[in-house]
Amino acid sequence: MLKLLILFFSVSVFATENVEIKIPSDDIATKDVVVESVTGNVEASNVIAEDTSITGLEVMNLVREESRKKNTRVAVVDMKIFDSENRERVRYFNYWTKYFDGQENSLIKFFRPKNVKGTALLTNSSDEHNEKKQWIYIPAFKVVKQLTSSDKNKSFMGSDFTYSDIAGRKLSQDNHQLVKETESNYFIESKPVDASDSIYSVIRYVVNRDLNVIQKAIFYDLEEEKLKTLENTSVSNINGVNIVMLSKMTNHQTGGRTILTVQSMDVGENIKDDVLSIKGLKSQ
Question: Which of 44, 85, 181, 249 is the most exposed place for a label (fewest CB within 10 A)?
């Protein structure tokens, strides 16, 4: 599984292009569709693609490389969390990420509402190691806690994303199989190499061929029951990078959903190393 939040950005005055693209899902009607609709059903894809010149791993590599164009991102994001009774909570955070020399560091820091202000999550990962380290700062107690493996499977700030969703997985941790190919999309099925290494038994992706972005991902639990669906429904091209601007994660087992919308973004801005550190995690 790729890092799911790596492209959650919007357009700002720093963008040289503003080409907004609406990406429909394969089974949910969309009123303002610009990109050609997907006709296949990712959940029913059980026929292995034949006579193709690209593999599932190569497709996922294209997605990763698209996400790494320009090595920094700075964004302001709002997160709307809905429970099964449609009750809403809204939280706002700043987001920084930097990729350099095989190392990727990111920081999420909440600034509103007051009861979560200052709460922050730091994620460090390396191309050389599968393990991704995460620390959370809780300002009320002035405590920094490094997350354990079990912590990473818990809900991130009450949302339908887990901490491990935020961190993502290395491509090498999963086997990626191309199961279907159309003119506009690749359909990929990814299963963990080590079944004990993931809370998901399989993830099925719909990848837009023209944009090299994931437009949909369906997550299955360890009993192979459908657990969650991620839909990336709006993309903008910013400084030559295709970036997801609006995402929704739906939990089919709890009835909850979480919507991420980017309010502002900059691509390629210089980020000092100490911002993406324990010192930056605790700073106000």
Answer: 85
Q: What DSSP string runs through 65-97? A: HHHTSSSEEEEEEEEEEE-TT--EEEEEEEEEE
Nearest of 6, 11, 64 to residue 238 by alpha carbon: 11
pLDDT tens figures, 214-244: 999 999 999 999 999 999 999 888 888 888 8
- Does the model's pTM come out above 0.85? no
Domains in the chain, start-ordered, CATH in brackets? Answer: 19-282 (2.50.20.10)
What's the pLDDT band for 155 if we cut at 50, 70, 90?
A: very high
Q: What is the pLDDT of residue 50?
A: 54
Beta strands at 257-267 and 72-82: parallel, antiparallel or unpaired = antiparallel
The separation between the first and the last C-alpha atoms of the chain, rounded to the nearest angstrom, is: 32
106 close to 95: Cβ distance less than 8 angstroms: yes
Q: Is there a contact between 32 and 46 (Cβ–Cβ < 8 Å)? A: no
The pair of three-digit structure tokens given for residue 246, joined into one six-digit string = 């609006």
Which residue type, as a one-letter code, is found at position 66? E
Please name the residue that has the structure tokens 């809403």.
88
Range of lowest pLDDT (123-132, 183-192, 261-270) = 123-132
Q: To 5 degrees, how large is the angle CA 7–CA 33–CA 21? A: 35
> In 3D, which of 142, 107, 104, 105 has the Cα closest to residue 121?
107
